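Hi P.,

Sorry for the delay on this. The queue was packed all week, but I finally got your sequence through. Input first:
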Amino acid sequence: MSEHFPALIIIVPLLAAFLIAVAGWVNKRLCFPIAAASLCVSLYSAVRLLGIVLESGMVEYQLGGWPPPWGIAYNVDHLNGLVLVVISAVALLNLVANKKSIAQEFPEKIGPFYTLYILFVTGLTGMVVTGDAFNLYVLLEIASLTGYALIGIGKDRAPLASLNYLFMGTIGASLYLLGVGYLYLVTGSLNMADLAALLPQIYDSKVVLLAFVFCLTGLFVKMAFFPLHAWLPNAYSYSPSCASSLIAPLTTKVMIYVMIRIVLSVFTPEFSFASLKISNAIVWLAVFAIIMGSLFALSQKSLKKMLSYVVIAEVGYMVGGFWLGNRPGMTGAILHIVNDAMMTLCVFLAAGTILYKTKGDSFDDLKGLFKKMPFSMTAFVIGALSIIGVPPTCGFFSKWYLISGGIAAGHYGFVAALLFSSLANVVLFFRLIEICYYEPFADHHHEKEESSLDEAPATMLIPLLMTAILLIVLGIYSGELVTNVIEFAIPGGIT
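Then the structure:
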C-alpha cells in the first residue's frame, strides 16, 4: 500500500467528496464522518510519505503506469512532502473545530459545504504533489472554483467578495496557463522534470522569458502579492468563519510553494536569479507589501479584516525571503510556509470561536472577552505572539532566518521592513489584548453580566488549543525541521 500513498492523498478525498454529496441527500449526519475520515487518510498518507522521503529520497508515482513525459507523474520530495503534511493537518484541525459552526451557519447546505471543503483540499494537495505543469493548472482551478463557492456561500457581502475574487483569480490562472502554453510551444513537454532538462538549451529565447513572466505574474495574483492583493481582504473578511479559517492559512502558502517549485525545479536558480536580474526588484516589491499590509492592518476596526491584511504582509515575508536568493532567506521562506499556515489557522480559528459566541468581530464586540472566553483568548494570544515573532513560538525562528538572509544579501530595506512589521504587529495585537482584557466602564450589574464565563464548545476549543500548542512545539523543533527537511529542499548550488 505504501507505494500508492501519492495517489491516495488525492483519490480518497476526491471519492469522499462524491460520497458526501450523496450523503447530503440521504442523511446529513454522515457528511462530517466521511469528510473527517478522508482527511485522516490524507494526513496519514502525507506523514508516511514524508517519512519515506526522509529515509530514501524522492518518491515518484506514475499514474496508470504511464511513464513521463507522456504520462502524469506525482513526485514527492522534501519540499512538497512537508507542505502536504501542513495542508492535511490544517484541513483536519479546521474541519473538527468548525463542525458546530457549519451546522449553525448552513443547516440546509451541510452536504454541499462539506463537498466543496473536501474538493478544495483535494485541489491544493494535487497542486503540491503533481509533477506536470498543466495538471497543476487543472488542480489549481479545482481549488479556485471550490474556494470561490466556499466564500460566496456566506451572507451579506460574501457573494460580492467572492465575485471579485473570481475575476482576479481567473486572470491569475489564465496568466499561469498562458505561460505553460508558451513552455509547451518551445519544448513540446509539460512534465516538470522534462522541462527542466529541455529549457537550459533555449534560455536565450524570448518565448521562455515570456513564459516565465506570465507564470510568475499569474502566481503573484493568486497569492495576493501586493499590489495584486485587491481580492483578498474582502474575500477573507466576509466569508463564513469556517471557510476563511481553511482558505486563509492554505491558499497563499500553496501558491508560494508553486512559485518556489516553478523557479527552482522547472527553471534553474541560475536562470531565475543570475540571468534575469529581477530578484532585487521583487524583494523591493516584497518590502512594499510588508509595509503596506502592516499599515492597512493598523487602520482596521474589524478582527477578520485586520487579520486579512496581516496575511498580505506575511506573503511579502515569504516572497521577499525566497527572492533574496540565498540559503538563509530560502530556509526562512520555506519554514515560514509551515509556521504561517499554523499561525494563521490559530488566529482565524480564535476569530471563529469569538464570532460563534458574540455574533460580531468588530473591536467593540471583543470587550471583556478574557473573562468570558479565557481558553479561546489564551490560544489567540499565543497565535498573536507567534505572528509578532516572540520566542519560543515558531514565528520567531522563521523571522530570524529571513532577517539573517536579508543581512547576508546586504538587503537592509527588507530587514527594516521585517522589523517594522513586527512592531506594527505588537501595536495591533496588544491593542486587541487590551480591549479583550479590560472591562468596559459600565454599571455594576452590567459588569457582573459581562464577566460570567461563556466559553466556546469543547469541539471548537480542543483543535484551537492543539493548534496553539503546535506553534510552540514547531518553534522548539524548528532546528530539526530545518536540518532534516528544509536543507534538502534547497538546491546545493545556493549558498
